[in-house]
Amino acid sequence: MAQTYLPTLKQLQYLTALKDHGHFGRAAESCFVTQSTLSAGIRELEMLIGVTLVERTRRVVRFTPLGERIAIKARKVLREAEELGDMARAAGRPLSGEMRMSVIPTIAPFLLPRILPRLRTDYPDLKLFLREEPSAAACDSLHNGRADCVLLALPYACGEVSTQMLFDDRLFVAFPEGEMPTTPAPVAASEIDETRLLLLEDGHCLKDHALAACNRPELRAEAQMLGTSLHTIVQMVDNGLGVTMLPEMALKAGILEHTHIRARPLAGEHPLRTIALAWRRASPRERDFKLLADVLAEAG
Question: For the HTH lysR-type domain, which residue ranges apply (predicted)?
């Protein structure tokens, strides 16, 4: 019987890294190896299976059609291999070992500082690697195995995932001092001047949550989507350039400190977003994710 030579996990890791980065140097850096080591590993893989997977030129790395399909399959194999280790960890102590969590930018700077010290104290064997990225990229990382779980805001279509709701995060209207009455009463969407509304640029789901909560179609057409972060938006409002909407967690974290901005809750049927933890369905670490979700919910 002829001997069968199988690709190694390391070779598959090199291939998927090259697919992700499109550059040998950056791919090698992400794998913590030299560029020559990564290049040699992919050549060995090509020789092993007898086909060209990557066309190499001085300027461009281009995957062949078969290389594209094999890279997709390689990612699935690597994910399955990782889950072998996950199964072993799940049978041991809760929340131990490595865990990669993607967090959207409108949550990360406000919730993580409150929760990370407790995780370090209560679960010292957990090595939590954090990645901040918008919702679409975070869900893509989850499905492609770059993340084990995602901390995001719902509603958002993240695909075939399991989720655990953590808490509701109410939306507030933030405005320069003197622009609106400073009563504690909620602000009706009809009170918002659409020509003054500043929101995060496309790609941030908070923009969609804010517009949906207002239920005013003309806001989408008139609002200026130009902020790259909530901190940037706050600086614009503080300089009198307009009004915006902020989540309650940002207010609790002190985002308006040292500004002349006032905030009032937004009125409406659903003036909020729901914070949730999501993970791949049937993950062997589901118990860990549910425990992590419980800890995060307490921080809310």
Answer: 7-64
State pLDDT tens for residues 210-255.
888 887 777 776 777 677 899 999 999 999 999 999 999 999 999 9
| List of residues 6+ apart from 236 with CB closer than 8 A | 198, 227, 242, 244
Same structural domain, 81 and 210: no
**Residue 200 amino acid letter:** L
Domain span at residue 127 reads 95-300
Interstrand relation of 272-280 and 161-176 (parallel, antiparallel or unpaired): antiparallel
pLDDT in tens, 30-76: 898 999 999 999 999 998 888 899 988 777 888 999 999 999 889 88
- What are residue 171's DSSP bridge partners? 247
Angle at 137 between CA 146 and CA 172, to 5 degrees: 125
Name the β-bridge partners of 102: 131, 150
Where on the phi/psi map is residue 240: left (φ > 0), alpha (ψ -120 to 50), or beta? left
Q: Give domain status of residue 238, yes or no.
A: yes
- 113 and 147 share a domain? yes
Q: How many CB atoms lie within 10 A of CB 124?
A: 10
Q: Are residues 104 and 231 in the same domain?
A: yes
The dihedral through the CA atoms of 86, 90, 96, 101 has a sign that is positive
- Is residue 198 within 8 A of residue 241, CB to CB? The reply is yes
Nearest C-alpha neighbor of 194 from the set 178, 216, 173, 213: 216
pLDDT score, position 276: 97
Examine residue 2 and state whether it is found in any structural domain, yes or no. Answer: no
CATH code (residue 76): 1.10.10.10
In a domain, 145, yes or no: yes
| Number of domains composing the chain | 2
pTM: 0.74
